[in-house]
Task: structure prediction
Amino acid sequence: MAVTNMTTPISHTPADMTQWTGRAEPFETARARYWYQLAQPYEAQHIGLIGFACDQGVRRNQGRVGARAAPSLIRRAFATLPVIADLQQRFDSQLSTLLGDAGDIHCDDNDGFADNILEQAQIKYADAVSTIVKQGGLPIGLGGGHAIAYGSFLGLWQALEKANDITISTNTAPTIGIINFDAHLDIRQSDVATSGTPFRQIAEHLDAHDQPFHYCCIGVSRFSNTAALFDRAEQLGVQVISDEDCHYQPWDTLAERVKSFVNQVDIIYLTIDMDCLPASVVPGVSAPAAYGIDLGFVERMVKTIMASGKVKIVDIAEINPTFDIDSRSCKVAARLLAAIVEQHLLSA
Result:
């Protein structure tokens, strides 16, 4: 795929706290709290939100661009959600320590193909992720295209490398498991990195460091992946749970499969490509799903995974506001974000 040489800025903009607004309820008790009232600029809180405002991976993958506008809109939708009673009761006077906003990594590609710009954005985003992990927080990335995944992994790897001297002795490295909710396997071969290549890149990175590749993809559509991709998944030992499995197999069967995967690893990287959900539920994505998996299933499984206590990084990808209807997609992303935040804090 040909790309042009462009001098295009990659920037890390600080948190814009004007995004954190919501309704005021002066006649209610202090328990009428919303997330906009708790969010602070990131300073080592329990959770750090970091945006990946980048479309270049989607552009290279020939998808519908527009996801770079999503991070701020997901924040706005999340900001208006109430803080559940269990969290208020548990943390009480420490509520201001729960959520920090670490700003956005911006990738301005001038609406064209740009040499190295995606890779530069992933590295800058990885640095921000690594900082949050090293400070003991849970980074939650807000995409942007699913090229965020390679950046998320690199950020986690950098933090683990620092903590465990992985470069000195690979025997000290904790085992990483990746769980991806996605209609696509995203293990494509390509001459450049795209939103369709991140998990192949991760597999290659781990192999280069003599580490195993543990990857479970939930919601995979046989109509959205070629035979070549399924062949590669088999070669890489990917655990595939199809969209049809999610509809027709009993919950207990699938939950046990996922729990078994979690039990095999030390650390989980959880990523949600919002195109795993039906287009009727999430219309604003790069590649809308004709079938998809139920939101209730995704939320229940996400809570199950988060409850393990092994999740060290999360991201939500591929929301594309350009094609959204009534902000449905951003609202669904915000609900999943709330479920992740709540389960993480309650499991801490």
Q: What stands out?
A: Confidence is low (pLDDT under 50) at residues 1-6.
